[in-house]
Design a protein that fits this description.
The complex is a heterodimer of chains A (202) and B (383). Chain A is globular, with a radius of gyration of 17 Å. Chain A is built from six helices and five strands, in the order ααβββαββααα. By secondary structure, chain A is mainly α. Chain A has a single domain (3-196), classed as Up-down Bundle (Butyryl-CoA Dehydrogenase, subunit A, domain 3). The longest helix of chain A has 27 residues, at 82-108. Chain A has helices at 9-18, 20-31, 82-108, 121-142, 151-171, 182-196, and strands at 41-45, 56-63, 66-72, 111-112, 115-116. Helix content of chain B is 50%, strand content 15%. Chain B has helices at 6-23, 26-31, 43-49, 73-93, 98-107, 110-122, 238-271, 277-305, 311-333, 341-344, 346-358, 365-377, and strands at 63-64, 67-68, 127-130, 146-150, 153-164, 171-177, 185-191, 197-201, 212-223, 227-228. In chain B, the strands form three sheets. A four-stranded mixed beta sheet of chain B has the order 3-6-7-10, with helices on one face. A four-stranded antiparallel beta sheet of chain B has the order 4-5-9-8, with no helix packed on it. Classes of the chains: A mainly alpha (202), B alpha+beta (383). The interface between A and B is large, with 41 and 47 residues. The complex binds flavin-adenine dinucleotide. Flavin-adenine dinucleotide sits between chains B (129-132, 137-138, 162-164, 207, 210, 212, 357, 360-361, 363-364, 366-367) and A (110, 112, 117, 120, 122-123, 170-171, 173-174, 177).
Chain lengths: 202, 383
């Protein structure tokens, strides 16, 4: 199998069911690289850092008891290969699917008056919006091989996922702010997207 | 345009200076919420610790250039915007009467007000406000924490969640149920030193300075003199009675969102000097949105200070829009920097994390949209 034929299904599933750290480790393993963004940033689970003594740790984030590092290494700017950048969108997409599942569980178990929040029309509409966004992203991803989607197309997908995640987080109520829950994973997911989103600045 | 008068402008100038000074320690506070104990002598903290206290209880009020401040809503939104533009977490970490003070003013009798405010003025004292429960937040009317008579006192049992500052506090207001139905919810003043009271902080993605906690009440004994609103009719005490006070506070929470948005915007202005024509347009649009929401927030504050019947609708409109603005502007601000901006500009990242929290404080956007609809259907804004 060449990298071009890489299947992203396991990364998507890992993100959805096992969470961010498992999926990110799998992405590293599958692509065999630590993919630095255009300005030399990357988020890595602890353990991979030993592999890169040149990088400076500029952020440390905890997620479910695991540490992740935000690394900066200008010398490795833009080294993320195309299979990595496409894989990252799949990873964030899988996380977003997992977040939708968390919302369904949360809202199904919570009530207003005596009826589940899940049955409120406003909530149904907001969940539907998330599903529509997911379908849109999935449709763009499904037939894409590394290199098929240019930087701006990938950036647009990242933005769509970020906006969708924000909408879903709101549905989790205050619990979305807990540092040991899905809200922290979304924060890290946003940091990862940001590390690869190139922008024109003067 | 709703402009500040000279008194309010003076307050704004002081608040800006205090908040800027305190914000220098913002990341330290995030890492260690206990830091606030070492900042209590700074003028911003001193002011927040003593404000708002009704004039009759404050014999030695803080004067700023000769002006006295009594905690009106326009003052509150001014302070909240300035602090949040620097660092909202610092403001929410401060001691002071805060939300409980408003409720004690609203529901408490003379003796309770004297008890509460004299303690707040005696030394920097944190207070808390406990309404949300683990199983219900928006649906506050369904709360289950119970207050059951036991001889000449009541026993408080149950749990609350997301209670800001409860682990630092000396006392606060707790909502609990004495019987089924909307009139069965009452508010009580509860001291944190009482046996059976525990408050356990838990870490959050944003606004860590607020140090939210899980609170448990395990047979906490409450004396009758701590029940708020016993001198009022049943519809004016408890949750129903509190609603008016909460409506008055809401523009302040909206101003936190507004301030966070402004802080992110000002950060871009300061850090990105050579803008393209396109970026200048985008930034100007942000400035227009911020000013427009500022006007909405001030409109709600004006309604609060005038006891306008449209307050509930206006306050919800301002809160819903300001929390949306805070998320939009903080996310949009990264677009002015290169890839990796969130790691490279931690202050901007902090604004974005803090913005997320504004959504939940004092009710979510959906709930405020429902309130605004109610205002529409009842023609509350018709004029
Ligand atoms: C930083 C922070 C500080 C806080 N401080 C305090 C405090 O000091 N004291 C305190 O008591 N509480 C506090 N809270 C809690 C806050 O008030 C609640 O989080 C908020 O009321 C929402 O409740 P919830 O989290 O249970 O969400 P839920 O009520 O579970 O809501 C989940 C989702 O359902 C939506 N929803 C709910 N009902 C409806 C409906 N009828 N129709 C349509 N949509 C609906 C909501 O908008 C949300 O999107 C704080 C929260 C935070 C994040």
């Amino acid at each position: 199998m060449t990298l071009r034929d890489l299947s992203y299904a396991p990364i998507r599933v890992a993100a959805r069911t096992d969470g961010l750290v498992a999926a990110l480790s799998l992405l590293h393993e599958t692509t065999g690289t630590v993919g630095y963004g255009p300005e030399g940033h990357v988020i890595v689970p602890r353990g991979l850092i030993e592999a890169d003594p040149e990088a400076e740790v500029i952020d440390t984030i905890e997620l479910h008891g695991r540490l992740l590092y935000g690394l900066h290494c200008p010398g490795r700017s833009g080294q993320a290969p195309e299979e990595w950048t496409l894989g990252l969108v799949w990873l964030r997409y899988g996380l977003s699917e997992g977040l939708l599942e968390s919302c369904m569980t949360y809202l199904g178990g919570r009530t207003v008056g005596n009826s589940p929040l899940l049955l409120q029309q406003m909530i149904k509409g907001q969940l539907a919006e998330a599903v529509i966004a997911h379908l849109e992203v999935l449709t763009a991803l499904e037939d894409a091989h590394p290199g098929d989607l240019d930087e701006s197309a990938l950036a647009a997908l990242h933005q769509r996922i970020t906006r969708t995640d924000r909408g879903l987080l709101r549905l989790l109520g205050g619990s979305s702010l807990c540092a040991d829950g899905p809200g922290q994973a979304v924060h890290i997911s946003e940091l990862m997207a940001d590390a690869y989103t190139k922008r024109q600045t003067t | 345009m709703i402009e500040l008068n000279e008194r309010q402008s003076t307050l704004r100038a002081y608040a800006r200076e205090w908040a800027t000074e305190l914000a220098k320690r913002a990341f330290e506070l995030e890492r260690s919420p206990e830091l606030v104990h070492r900042l209590l002598d700074l003028p911003g903290m001193v002011f927040l610790a003593r404000t708002p206290v009704p004039a009759e209880y404050d014999r030695d009020p803080i004067l700023l250039d000769g002006h006295r401040y009594d905690g009106g809503s326009m003052e509150r939104v001014t302070i909240c915007e300035e602090f949040a533009a620097a660092d909202a977490g610092m403001m929410l970490a401060a001691p002071g009467p805060s939300m409980s003070g408003v409720l004690v003013s609203q529901l408490g009798d003379k003796a309770q007000q004297e008890w509460f405010f004299s303690r707040v003025l005696e030394r920097p004292t944190w207070t808390f406000f406990a309404l949300t429960e683990p199983d219900r937040g928006s649906d506050a009317g369904g709360l289950q924490t119970s207050l059951v008579p036991d001889g000449d006192r009541l026993l408080l049992n149950g749990a609350k969640r997301f209670i800001g500052n409860a682990a630092r506090a000396s006392f606060g207001v707790v909502f609990a149920r004495t019987k089924p139905g909307p009139l069965g919810v009452v508010a009580a003043l509860v001291e944190t030193s009482l046996r059976g009271f525990t408050a356990t902080p838990f870490p959050t993605v944003g606004l860590r300075g607020n140090q939210v906690t899980d609170v448990r009440f395990d047979n906490v004994e409450i004396t009758m003199d701590r029940m708020l609103g016993a001198h009022l009719s049943p519809t004016r005490r408890g949750l129903l009675g509190a609603v008016r006070g909460l409506n008055k506070l809401r523009p302040g929470v909206a101003a936190l969102g507004l301030g966070i948005a402004r802080g992110a915007y000002e950060y871009v202005r300061a850090e990105r000097r050579d803008l393209t024509a396109w970026e200048r347009c985008e930034l100007d649009e942000m400035a227009r949105d911020i000013e427009s929401v500022r006007q909405l927030v001030r409109r709600a504050a004006t309604a609060a200070d005038a006891d306008d019947p449209a307050l509930a609708t206006l306050a919800s409109a301002a809160k819903a829009r300001a929390s949306q603005l805070a998320e939009e502007i903080t996310l949009g601000a990264f677009g002015f920097f290169g890839a990796g901006a969130r790691l490279q500009h931690p202050r901007l990242d902090k604004y974005a994390r803090d913005a997320r929290a504004v959504e939940y404080m004092e009710g979510t956007r959906n709930i405020h949209h429902l309130n605004v609809f109610q205002g529409l259907s009842r023609r509350r804004l018709a004029s």
